[in-house]
Amino acid sequence: MRDVYLVTSYEKRYVLYIYRRDQRTPTEILAEWKFVDFLYTNGVPVAPAVPNKNGELLMTFDAPEGTRHGVLAPFVDGKHLRQRPNIGAVRTYGRIVAQIHALADTLPFGLARSTNDWETLVNQSVVAFDSVITVNPADKAYLHQAAAVLHPQMAALPREKPLYGMIHGDVIRANAQVSDDGQVTVLDFDLCGLGWRAYDVASYLQVLKGLPDQDESERAFLGGYQEIRSLTTSEQEALPLFEAVRTIFDIGVNAANVYHWGNVYLHSFLSQSMEQLKQCMKSVG
Known about the structure:
four-stranded antiparallel beta sheet; three-stranded antiparallel beta sheet; Aminoglycoside 3'-phosphotransferase, Chain: A, domain 2; single chain; globular; Phosphorylase Kinase, domain 1; alpha+beta
């Protein structure tokens, strides 16, 4: 989604994120890192942007394809949760996600970020899929059918605190960095924006499907989350809905990036994802 570089100086290591041309506006990028800084200031383990000597966060590059923007952040030692599947770290991850949600409701300023809604998560994903998949008519038909079922249910969901507000947007194992001593740092807020808190929770539950430790990891993540913020009955009932939404979004991300990542990965990913979507839809009321 972004170009990511390791930057080594005499004293420290950093990570340089360079955004694609026209993927995010400078205002959107700054809003992302302003949110990260707010969380960091309030004690959430995240990696905030490193300003330059003039106090500016955003770098500008004149690339062959046009102007691109970059942000420097500190390097975080460790391995991500997919490589280090420690149940204690899973519980901690759930707790941190809940902290993010709770703190986001106290933001003293607005943020110019996109909304994680039906249009962004589902409809745009279906459109991207249709634009690059010229075969698999059965998959196309099923994807449209699933989207039609999800649309009215998402439209009926409340958009009010604490159920709705700023979210991380990409709560997966690769975005939780676990240090050697078990400390967890949450990374990659590129998809942050307004959305349902249950979507963040469901995004993590969705990536656990079929894993040997699925049940144990689900209990750990939900247990950690609810140490900080209890899920309402309606949020718990919406989790299967958002697991289906997240599966469609993942399909859409691969379809939308086929010209960057190639279509071999898309087609190998598609079969498994469509089967997972069908399983998710069985639990959607």
